Amino acid sequence: MTLQRRTFLIGGLASAGVVLAGSTAATAVAYPFTLGVASGEPAADGFVIWTRLAPSPLNADGLGGMTSADAAVEWQVATDANFTQIAASGTVAATQAWAHSVHVTLTGLQPGREYWYRFRALGHISQVGRARTAPAVGSSPALTMLFTSCSHYEAGYFTAYRRMAEENPDLILHLGDYIYEGGAGSGVRTHQPSGEITSLANYRVRHALYKRDVDLQAAHAAAPWLVVWDDHEVENNYANLVRADNSPAGGDFAARRAAAYKAYYEHMPLRSAQAPSGSNLQLYRRLRWGSLATFHMLDTRQYRDDQACGDGTKLCPAADDPGRTLTGAAQESWLLDGLGQRLGTWDFLGQQVFFAQKLAAADGSKSMDSWDGYTANRGRIQAGWQARGNTPVVLTGDVHRHWASNIMDNYATQNKVIGTELVTTSVTSSGDGNAAETGTSSLNPHVKFYKNQRGYVRTVTTPAQMTVDFRVLDKVTVRDYPIKTAQSYVIQAGTPGLQAP
Ligand SMILES: [Fe+2]
Asked: Could you say which residues form the signal peptide (predicted)?
């Protein structure tokens, strides 16, 4: 074991020395890869690799201890973890305008295989990340995909991220609330900056605080990610440019949202097509996984109408107004167009808020922040996918609980299952939870499963079926708990709905 490790270290450094010869001489700069490395957006011919130079990542100015000078960042992609076979390499400039983050979009790689990548800058070599290209169109190898959401730094340790890395997945989805915007509160560790974040500098420091976590870094280094945000990347329950509350008071919310979106881009392995423009950022997008699956990644925050009846959980006829939208008209038609293409066996919607109807009381009270607050938009999408012969699987975050539901054509009559919804619990948000708590109700017969513990969902998808394991940890306020499966289901291709395994 010692010999292997020694061989790896020497081989790695020697390889770097040969290939990267003539690069920036080592200087006395502190280690700049404090935020780890990441990959994302896999395609059949490449993916994005990301890092950010930040020798002092929590500096209050948000600049990570870097000066205004550009820094050359060399990168390598190899077909082996020892970097003996280099598939691609190059140099990119990290600039202060983007907080010295780099997003390298790789093309020309082989489909359906693993790659390893690393960076070198300021005389230091980064950690090694493992990525994977999507399979070629026409092929459908089994896909192990994990998804999670809601990783509040103070609410617990990121053990779920560590366990996700250990699953050796092909792909990881994060469905929103990757950071939380609130100031320092109570918990197992403490937010920095200490106040609610509203400026670009503060959003950068908050992202850096989260990215310093070694468990999170392990999950990013283990597999490519597909990310979409929810509300807390900006502010709780905001809707387009409408704030949910006035705390902290005042300020220009469009400018705040622009700062939050920019910091999000700077810290995520996204393509340059997702670089922000003013206070907007085009996040909804489609990704093909060979002929097996298509991921339709949605943004349910940036274009939505304000929550009806002042938000909250209530009886609110205005929620059914046909003019209301959660997706915006352009994203709705884009989604229906994509669901009509039937590019792969499976269509996955990666999105934020509870999709299926979920009545909170017999009088019809529902959550105004979820699709229940935008029922006409949901109805058009459900009818649209039925008209196109589709039976998608909706992947959801937000609610800090595991849930599983059959999506119904008509929730009142429970007439026909037309899709399936899998809701992941949180990484940490809401703390340890309660394994014994019950949550399903006779008000919602299509909702089959509920578990109030932290973790993620593991899926293994083939052309015939999808197996689903709801993975949980007994505690997140204590480090290093083991992961276990609370419940499993199977979904058969072409037959929507949850089945016993
Ligand atoms: Fe959350």
From this structure: 1-21
Percent of the chain with pLDDT over 90: 93
- Average pLDDT in the chain: 94
CATH numeric code, 136-499: 3.60.21.70
Q: How far is the CA of 290 from the centre of ligand 1 (A)?
A: 31
H or E stretch at 144 = strand 143-148
* CA of residue 428 to ligand 1 center, whole Å: 9
CA of 451 from ligand 1 middle (Å) equals 16
Reported as a pLDDT band with limits 50, 70 and 90, residue 278 is: confident
Contacts of 27 (CB under 8 A, 6+ apart): 122, 123
Residues 6+ positions from 202 with CB-CB distance below 8 Å? 62, 193, 195
Buried b (16+ CB within 10 A) or exposed e, 66-100: beeeebebbbbbbeeebbeeebbeeebebeeeebb
Give the model's pLDDT for residue 28: 57
Residue 277 CA to ligand 1 center (angstroms) comes to 26
Q: Give the Å distance between the CA of 433 and the centre of ligand 1.
A: 14
CA of residue 377 to ligand 1 center, whole Å: 23
- Is residue 469 helix, strand or coil? strand
Query: How far, in Å, is the centroid of ligand 1 from the Cα of 174?
Result: 11
Tens digits of residue pLDDT in 396-443 = 999 999 999 999 999 999 999 999 999 999 999 999 999 999 999 999
Q: What separation in Å is there between the alpha carbon of 369 and the centre of ligand 1?
A: 12
24/91: higher pLDDT: 91
> Distance (Å, rounded) from C-alpha 438 to C-alpha 442?
12
What's residue 29's pLDDT? Answer: 79
Match 């920019």 to its residue by tokens: 262
Q: Is a pLDDT exceeding 70 seen at residue 455?
A: yes
Instruction: Dig out the tokens for 300 from the structure.
Output: 């349910």
Is the Cβ–Cβ distance between 458 and 494 less than 8 Å?
no
Query: Domains of the chain: which residue ranges?
Result: 136-499
Specify the pLDDT at position 5.
31
Q: How far is the CA of 429 from the centre of ligand 1 (A)?
A: 6
- Ligand 1 centre to CA of 177 (Å) is 5
Contact 192, 459 (CB under 8 A): no
Please name every residue paired with 290 in a beta bridge, in sequence order, or none if there are none: none
> How many angstroms is it from 397 CA to the middle of ligand 1?
8
The pLDDT, as a whole number, for residue 279 is 87
pLDDT at res. 20? 39
CA of 218 to the centre of ligand 1 (A): 21
Q: How far is the CA of 215 from the centre of ligand 1 (A)?
A: 19
